[in-house]
Amino acid sequence: xxxxxxxxxxxxxxxxxxxxxxxxxxxxxxxxxxxxxxxxxxxxxxxxxxxxxxxxxxxxxxxxxxxxxxxxxxxxxxxxxxxxxxxxxxxxxxxxxxxxxxxxxxxxxxxxxxxxxxxxxxxxxxxxxxxxxxxxxxxxxxxxxxxxxxxxxxxxxxxxxxxxxxxxxxxxxxxxxxxxxxxxxxxxxxxxxxxxxxxxxxxxxxxxxxxxxxxxxxxxxxxxxxxxxxxxxxxxxxxxxxxxxxxxxxxxxxxxxxxxxxxxxxxxxxxxxxxxxxx
Length: 279
Known about the structure:
By secondary structure, this protein is an alpha/beta fold. It has one domain (about 25-279): Alpha-Beta Barrel (TIM Barrel), CATH 3.20.20.70. The chain has helices spanning about 40, 65, 75-90, 105-115, 135-140, 155-160, 165-180, 210-220, 255-270, and strands at about 25-35, 45-50, 75, 95-100, 125, 145-150, 185-190, 190-200, 225-230. Strands 1, 2, 3, 4, 5, 6, 7, 8 and 9 form a 9-stranded mixed β-sheet that branches. The longest helix is centred in the middle third of the chain and has 16 residues, at about 165-180.
């Protein structure tokens, strides 16, 4: 019942749901990450833990070996707590939980142990946006920084490209709940300490979505929202060598015109934080 699929898989009996995840946490890698947004990476890096598996199956995923191939290795809850502490000892500015939703029970158990052993840096919830608001409410007061994607504003595209029925509605409701909990992104000395940061990956040929995405953020969330308009899409995952017939443009990279248009529309709605360097 962790994600919007509500698959009811009983992991205690060895059953797996869509994410094919059991009781034990599984990670692909961990360490200081210097490639996140500037307020997240800072000087010493974001303490990133990449969890194996995902609640989505984006056919263009650039980390498909982790999200869909389940690359990685199982760790115990005490070992995961030790990883959090080690990242703090390395000077990381935060603990960055990447695709955590389907592994939340193990993560929460590890956090209890880590906090008892001195973990005190902010917690970043780095997610695809395909979230259940009831699950998010359980995290109120625990997560300091929410960093969701807002991938699609069209439900059909979400189903074809990521196997996520109802993605736009779930993602928008999730973002509103995240903002209710932590507010706009707060930065102290150049480092994010609390708040919401939204990522929007520009997909080639999807310029008709810009108005819907940025009007929602500006009018329903906040004009002070930090928005990373990302232009790094390239054909990956299942897109390599072939494209879905409905979306042939996915076989190319995004154009500078598409990037410029996205930034202009975001600016037109009064958004101003996070994306101006992309132009």
